[in-house]
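From the thread on structure requests for the teaching lab: each student submitted one protein with a one-line request. Submission from student K.M.:

"Model 3-ketoacyl-CoA synthase from Oryza rufipogon, tokens only."
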Amino acid sequence: MNGGDAAAAAATPSHRRLPDFLQSVNLKYVKLGYHYLITHLLTLLLLPLMAVIVLEAGRTDPDDLRQLWLHLQYNLVSVLVLSAVLVFGATVYVLTRPRPVYLVDFACYKPPDKLKVRFDEFLHHSKLCGFSDDCLEFQRKILERSGLSEETYVPEAMHLIPPEPTMANARAEAESVMFGALDKLFKFTGVKPKDVGVLVVNCSLFNPTPSLSAMIVNKYKLRGNIKSFNLGGMGCSAGVIAVDLARDMLQVHRNTYAVVVSTENITQNWYFGNRKSMLIPNCLFRVGGAAVLLSNRGADRRRAKYALKHVVRTHKGADNKAFNCVYQEQDDEGKTGVSLSKDLMAIAGGALKTNITTLGPLVLPFSEQLLFFATLVAKKLFNAKIKPYIPDFKLAFEHFCIHAGGRAVIDELEKNLQLQPVHVEASRMTLHRFGNTSSSSIWYELAYMEAKGRVRRGHRIWQIAFGSGFKCNSAVWHALRNVNPSPESPWEDCIDRYPVELDMIALEESPDFAAANSALYSVITLVCTSWIIRYIYGP
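Reply posted by the TA:
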């Protein structure tokens, strides 16, 4: 660090800087990941042992088997005890082993063309809504640098002049998105709504009564004993949480289907004030949603696309600062928006660090884990000045679904996970074509990979998302076959145009722009990724 950098760092308030991640590595989360790994390894080690026993039994001479039978006839008690132990062990294994969870198929909602919004139309409507000239110019800069195209969608209520963010219009938006995705899902999977035993719906900012899940039950006349859940207020990470909840329910309820619906509602959550840090979501968030069909039925494995391998969830809500760092409130004029704490960067760094550290031992090849663990132990025990080994996550995954929260989100993960442009192409193109669709963005990204024909049998997919609370969640999928795009894919009419070249305009470093841009939740969260990776694996 030169003198100028040192002076700048000294002048920066302590609460605006990230903690010094290079001082120590918290082994608690490394141990947690290895605990998960060893738990699965013990089960796998039993399979070779059983195979050896079967092979040895096959090589046994028939005369030896007759002699063994005669011997057992005179040791009936031993035989009964042994049989009871074997039956008991087999019963315990069958009852306690995790049931496989398959992703049969999924559908993403594609809004009608009439809901597309061009930049000039967006700014014209904003001007008519009474935004100041300064805020209009600020929104123009955000749009130009956002990575969004002029083909993204906003709800119909926002196209009206003046906008009509009523409860009725919000319900209409929710119904069009959820029912649009579910209609396609039931159509091309052939599953009857009555066969669905578990329903999980997540939408962060719109939670009417009756709930969104009740709206689906009513629309499709789902059965009366369905296990339905409605997750609210959990931000962009709620899609992975919903999958995890559905997986847990499928461990309990045999031979059934689970449907997960992930969406966000914009109509009643458009910010009409002039606080710049609250205007950025208006520029980035767009209409979207996805419906996912999961199954624990063995018969569905043949037609399923993916198997769920791991879900790692990190929640920092026990800490008051983490709980309050993303907080919905009213501005000075009484207009509702989302406020962001000055501690957000450090809190986001801790959540991401914990999640990646726990996930690593579950997915990284043994060679990568050995090199990382050896350097970690050397630094801890011998204080050796060894350059830490940075694991290559490209050896663990073929595809990456990074939440399309903003351009900076994708840029930072590409840089600090040492990914190639092709690994983040799906995230960039999803942001460009559909904008930030919140918790459903990871499904638009997976649909993009399928439309390109890139998902082959045996490939591994990492979905990672983050949200208020503060949470960071990961899901790992394993492709069961060469995956073709689903019928009526959201990309089917435009996939030939992608990928497109994006205009990488440098961000203007004016004080207002920098301050407001730093307030954007999705951008701030990932800007600190480089510090997180260094904290875990060293510089």
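TA comment: The first strand starts at residue 102 and ends at 108. Residues 456 and 482 are 4 Å apart (CA to CA).
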